[in-house]
Amino acid sequence: MAGDALLLQACARRPLPRPPVWLMRQAGRVLPEYRDIRTRHTLLEICAHAELAAEVTLQPVRRLGVDAAILFADILLPLIPLGFSVRFVAGEGPVIDNRIEGPADIAKLRDGAIEDALAPTFEAIRIVRGALPPGVALIGFAGAPFTLASYLIEGEPSRSFIRTKRFMYSEPAAFGRLLAVLAQRTAEYLRAQAAAGAQALQLFDSWVGALAPEDYRVHVQPHTAAVFEGLAGAAVPTLHFGTATGGLLEAMRDAGGDVIGVDWRIPLDEAWRRIGSDRGIQGNLDPGVLLAPVAEIERQVDRVLAEAGGRPGHIFNLGHGLLPETPVDAVRVLVERVHAHGG
Ligand code: CP3
Q1: For labeling, which of 14, 70, 125, 304 is most exposed (least CB within 10 Å)?
Q2: Residue to substitute in 75, 121, 201 for testing ligand 1 pocket (most ligand atoms within 8 angstroms of CB)
Q3: Rg of the chain over CA atoms, in angstroms?
């Protein structure tokens, strides 16, 4: 299968001359051609129009030469057909007006099919697959049960997850029911993305690093594992991502994922030792490095590559999304440095 996209070969841990590279939040945020579209359309409008979503998905492939495209959507989109009013407030972040305040509110979750409501997302997948250059893979994604639940319970951006933790500790059974429903619906949504043509699936548990390892194992891991179990038949590789997860790596690995995403708070080689060589690793440059002068960006890219040590299964990425302040030229320096590696 030498013709497979580099990203898929890395997920299968085949030896490669260099790792594939893509960047979280590569679509949106930093590209002028995205900002131009955003002057005319809201985020939700872009997501609701397959042609626009496909165009924005393809922009970083053209401009940056990355080895994978990530579908333009948002982890919070599927919460809308589940009955929640999601608003993206400029400069603030996502707000859910009818947030979950207690166990009784879990009944607010509707059973309508996510797939029907998000038809443009699946159409965008089909358009992108028809337009991607050979060798470039399309990644689909969803939020993991804990991260989705934290948005549903907080209702607004939070740093300490006070409401989520209060709910988790005082109503553990109801919290478990909520995560179980989210896990089931997320697995359905991801299976539908794979059926539409997504070639790899990333589960974003962006905020799970807020939890102690024991709480993760008790309250979260079974539900995240249920998502991965639900994807077993989808026949596409899976990536499992979180930030500040230095205390959770083994538990996240046990929950599932062919590739585990790690951030810059832990050296890549140390993370890989703990996770084990039977999984791939994605990461882990600090997005803040892209604000540095070129020589420092190149030095740090080389450092991450050295920590990966050419082991099969490395996917070069940032440890979290691109910062909006990042100059496009800095992103190009990063991609070109990875591409020049081993060549
Ligand atoms: O390049 C890509 O990553 C494409 C698509 C994408 C978006 N959101 C579009 C978006 C992806 C993969 C996401 C995932 C997402 N959304 C996550 C997980 C990744 C992570 O960063 O941890 C999370 C936590 C969200 C929730 C979310 N959506 C937040 C917190 C915000 C507001 C602030 C911000 O910019 O991050 C959003 C809005 C959002 N989603 C934007 C984009 C491009 C903002 C820009 C805009 O309004 O145009």
Answers
A1: 14
A2: 75
A3: 19
Nearest residue to 78 (alpha-carbon basis) of 105, 111, 101: 111
Contacts for 329 with CB less than 8 Å, ≥ 6 apart? none
Smallest CA-to-CA distance from 326 within 34, 21, 7 is with 34
Residue 72 CB less than 6 A away from ligand 1: yes
Mutate to test the pocket of ligand 1, among 24, 47, 74 (most ligand atoms within 8 A of CB): 74
CA of 39 to the centre of ligand 1 (A): 17
Quick check: is 151 catalytic? Answer: yes
Per-residue pLDDT of the chain (343 residues), as tens digits, is 546 999 999 999 999 999 999 999 999 889 999 999 999 999 999 999 999 999 999 999 999 999 999 999 999 999 999 999 999 988 889 999 999 999 999 988 888 778 889 999 999 999 999 999 999 999 999 999 999 999 999 999 999 999 999 999 999 999 999 999 999 999 999 999 999 999 999 999 999 999 999 999 999 999 999 999 999 999 999 999 999 999 999 999 999 999 999 999 999 999 999 999 999 999 999 999 999 999 999 999 999 999 999 999 999 999 999 999 999 999 999 999 999 998 6
Helices (H), the chain: 6-11, 32-40, 43-48, 50-64, 114-117, 119-131, 145-154, 162-170, 172-196, 213-215, 221-230, 249-255, 268-275, 294-308, 328-340
User: Strand, coil or helix: what is 150?
Assistant: helix
Q: Is the CB of 29 under 6 A from ligand 1?
A: yes
The reported pTM is: 0.97
Q: Which domains does the chain have, with CATH numbers?
A: 2-284+312-320 (3.20.20.210)
